Amino acid sequence: MKNALRQISVVVVILATITINILADALPINGLNTGRISDNFHVYFVPAGYVFAIWGLIYMGLLAYAIYQALPAQKINPRLQSTGWWVVLGGLANSVWIFLWHYQQFVGTLAAMLVLLGSLIAIYQRLGIGRIRVSTGENWAVRIPFSVYLGWITVATVANVTDVLDYLKWNVFGIAAQTWFLVVLVAVLVISTLMSLNRRDVAYILVILWSLVGIGYKFSNEPLIWIASLITSLLVALVFLYSLIRWVRAHK
């Protein structure tokens, strides 16, 4: 009974989350477009509009996961048992974030984003991504969707923090906006390096690269921004390739 409740709850929350995200712009909620609200902030860590198309991939991945975890054969899958309620929490946080964002409660959005990020980290760890082998079906319907989701929310969390700081008019210790952007890129590089060396997660790294290239493209008229974004992208890719080569050599 507990497993069935979990499976049903996951399906309901995922469907509700996707619906709310779609309606956010289709209505739009509070008469405001999600992307246009973002454009009101004077920050550099935000990718070009086309990059946000990744949400379509995330939605498809979540639907695939919802169907897969609801299958009778997956009812007692220990990894799905240990992550189901985290998925529910993440979905609720995602939906709350949408309403807070559209009603311009920006400080609150950061709290909701951190809950979503925390839930995805918990899911990622419990799925054993990069640590244990699973079936092809579970890899494509569960692991890859959450790798992509976590990769994007990693980027979104950094962007959310910079937005809130801009909203609060925090002067960042007097550091120039471009210099602050470089500091943020270093943080992203560190996170990506840790993920590459410890998990060798292709999907996660590809999302980071997709976002960095999108930032460079959006600010192509500002040399420092697009060059820094490109260099960071290359470093992220090189570290990932190094981690793969090291892993292959260790398992010969």
Give an overview of the whole structure.
This protein is mainly alpha-helical. α4 packs antiparallel against α5 (106-127). The model has no long low-confidence stretch (mean pLDDT 95). The chain has helices at residues 2-26, 34-39, 54-70, 78-102, 106-127, 136-167, 177-199, 202-218, 223-250. Helix content is 77%, strand content 0%. The protein has one domain (2-250). It is globular and about 55 Å long.
Residue windows where pLDDT falls under 50 for at least 5 positions: none
Beta-strand residue fraction: under 5%
Main sheet properties: none
Whole-angstrom Rg = 19 Å
Secondary-structure element order, N to C: HHHHHHHHH
Q: Which structural class is indicated by helix and strand composition?
A: mainly alpha
Total number of beta strands: 0
Shape: globular
DSSP helix count? Answer: 9
How much is the average pLDDT? 95
- C-alpha end-to-end distance: 46 Å
Helix content: over 70%
How many distinct domains?
1
Write a brief structural summary.
This protein is mainly alpha-helical and 252 residues long.
How is the secondary structure organized here?
Elements: H1 2-26, H2 34-39, H3 54-70, H4 78-102, H5 106-127, H6 136-167, H7 177-199, H8 202-218, H9 223-250
Keywords:
mainly alpha; globular; 252 residues; 0% strand
